[in-house]
């Protein structure tokens, strides 16, 4: 029987030699039954192999092995370089079956052509590529209008394109911190202990912001059955050092929209009592291109007076390939001038407010193409179709009778579900077994204080069809049937809480033993 942790690693190959079982995976080798001498011999052979990349079909062009971790001393033919990399990439997963990701995996061929035509344009060269800059400004204004920013007819919206919502959140957070510092200095008060209030369900980029820019992160803990930030608890955590409260429109964990309207009302009342003026940022990375089209009456954006900035991912439901995000501010006063740099070494005075400098123009152009091509009607049709496919998948999963559905009908089109009975097998085993069919579904535990709840999640994008939903349900049923015939990992009867804690420990060991790089 294979080790459950070893089998979870990528590209696992099983070699059965007589009575011994050897499991080999790149950068990781596990020999459960070998003698010490045999292990050393096999490890040496493995390490020697790992020093070079081999490609079967590239041998037509070059016979010498290509170094894996060092630059080769000599050039190789372009055909060989292509074939080596092509062969390596064959072992990647299928993007359409990757239901872990919110990121767009398909665009129209016409947009692909525009992106390739602009692939050699550096976006920061605004003087050299003024039209590209103009397209970005149009996108910012379109998004600001979509989010009901109070921009006059003669005014330009305040915002910037980024490489994703992580950078957008960093920029928004810096603006809040700087405004808080200015206010505190004016009042003659210390500025050395800023904090930010979020739910424990926030994406890791918020933790990065807090750690990188020395801001205390105050988290509202979750509880079983309620997996988003509680507005009342969030407002209770606010003090005079709070630079902002961050609300999420589309939780990564369950797709739920947090109640920004209630948060705004409660915070306004507290601001009136204290005079602190604590603002709100809305992390609409996933939901920013959903709510305006499906829930136009939902108040979550600049219609609420305390919402000062919003970020949204163009590469999620903005329907652009990975590499574009946006952040928009309510007005110019919400973006401190001393955070904006002015450079002239590219030919003219250019204001810039980004964490990076050089970046491609392709994603900006692709975002403008989608806005122009689809319009409000097109986006609405696509998101409605995603929601319909989500309901098909949700119903199929419910019909198995084996799962609890944790996601809501209103929110991001995804299905988050947990096993009703984890006494024999876990969602992590289900996720591993689904890989046999090409499906990539993440299995994870909820944040504090609901970490004993383990969940599977399927994100529904434009490229996920009605037919794929039915196929996934059929494969889930097949996996469940096969697992029912296997012996339980648990040796004795445990309480439900003990079983959930066992699942959490299993997941922790699984993650600890994976040798993944930093992304």
From TrEMBL:
SUPFAM superfamilies: PLP-dependent transferases. The keyword Nucleotide-binding does not apply. It comes from the Eukaryota. Its cofactor is pyridoxal 5'-phosphate. InterPro entries: Glutamate_decarboxylase (IPR010107), PyrdxlP-dep_de-COase (IPR002129), PyrdxlP-dep_Trfase (IPR015424), PyrdxlP-dep_Trfase_major (IPR015421). GO terms for biological process: L-glutamate catabolic process. Its EC number is 4.1.1.15. GO terms for cellular component: cytosol. This is Glutamate decarboxylase. It catalyses: L-glutamate + H(+) = 4-aminobutanoate + CO2. GO terms for molecular function: calmodulin binding; glutamate decarboxylase activity; pyridoxal phosphate binding. Keywords: Calmodulin-binding, Decarboxylase, Lyase, Pyridoxal phosphate. The modification N6-(pyridoxal phosphate)lysine is found at residue 316. Belongs to the group II decarboxylase family.
């Amino acid at each position: 029987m294979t080790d459950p942790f070893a089998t979870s690693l990528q590209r696992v190959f099983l070699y059965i030699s007589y009575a011994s079982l050897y499991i080999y995976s790149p950068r990781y080798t596990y020999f459960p039954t070998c003698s010490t001498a045999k292990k050393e011999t096999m490890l040496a052979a493995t390490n020697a192999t790992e020093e070079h990349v081999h490609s079967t079909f590239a041998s037509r062009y070059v016979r010498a092995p290509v170094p894996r971790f060092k630059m080769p001393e000599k050039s190789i033919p372009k055909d060989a370089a292509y074939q080596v990399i092509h062969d390596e990439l064959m072992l990647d997963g299928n993007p359409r079956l990757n239901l872990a990701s919110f990121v767009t995996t398909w665009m129209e061929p016409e947009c692909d052509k525009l992106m390739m035509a602009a692939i050699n344009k550096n976006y920061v060269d605004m003087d050299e590529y003024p039209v590209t800059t103009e397209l970005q400004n149009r996108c910012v204004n379109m998004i600001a209008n979509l989010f009901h920013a109070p921009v006059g007819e003669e005014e330009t919206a305040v915002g910037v394109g980024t490489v994703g919502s992580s950078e957008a959140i960093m920029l928004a957070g810096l603006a809040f911190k700087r405004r808080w510092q200015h206010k505190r200095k004016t009042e003659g008060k210390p500025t050395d202990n800023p904090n930010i209030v979020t739910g424990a369900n926030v994406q890791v980029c918020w933790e990065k912001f807090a750690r990188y820019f020395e801001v205390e992160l105050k988290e509202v803990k979750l509880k079983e059955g309620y997996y988003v930030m509680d507005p009342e608890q969030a407002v209770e955590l606010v003090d005079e050092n709070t630079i902002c409260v961050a609300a999420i429109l589309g939780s990564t964990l369950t797709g739920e929209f947090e109640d920004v309207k209630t948060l705004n009302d409660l915070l306004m009342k507290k601001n009136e009592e204290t005079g602190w003026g604590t603002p709100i940022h809305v992390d609409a990375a996933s939901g920013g291109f959903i709510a305006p089209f499906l829930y136009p009456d939902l108040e979550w954006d600049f219609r609420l007076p305390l919402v000062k900035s919003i970020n949204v991912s163009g590469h999620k439901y903005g329907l652009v390939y990975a590499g574009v995000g946006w952040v928009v501010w309510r007005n110019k006063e919400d973006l401190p001038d001393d955070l904006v740099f002015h450079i002239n070494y590219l030919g003219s005075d250019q204001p810039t407010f980004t964490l990076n400098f050089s970046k491609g123009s392709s994603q900006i152009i692709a975002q403008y193409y989608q806005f122009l091509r689809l319009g409000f009607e097109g986006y609405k049709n696509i998101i409605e179709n995603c929601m319909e496919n989500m309901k098909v998948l949700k119903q199929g999963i419910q019909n198995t009778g084996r799962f609890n559905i944790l996601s809501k009908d209103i929110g991001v089109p995804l299905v988050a579900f947990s096993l009703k009975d984890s006494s024999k097998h876990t969602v992590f085993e289900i996720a591993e077994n689904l890989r046999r069919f090409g499906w990539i579904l993440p299995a994870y535990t909820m944040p504090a204080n609901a970490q004993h709840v383990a969940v599977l999640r399927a994100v529904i994008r434009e490229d996920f069809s009605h037919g794929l939903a039915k196929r996934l349900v059929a494969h889930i049923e097949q996996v469940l049937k096969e697992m029912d015939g296997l012996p339980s990992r648990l040796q004795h009867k445990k309480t439900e809480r003990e079983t959930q804690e066992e699942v959490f420990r299993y997941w922790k060991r699984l993650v600890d033993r994976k040798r993944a790089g930093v992304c």
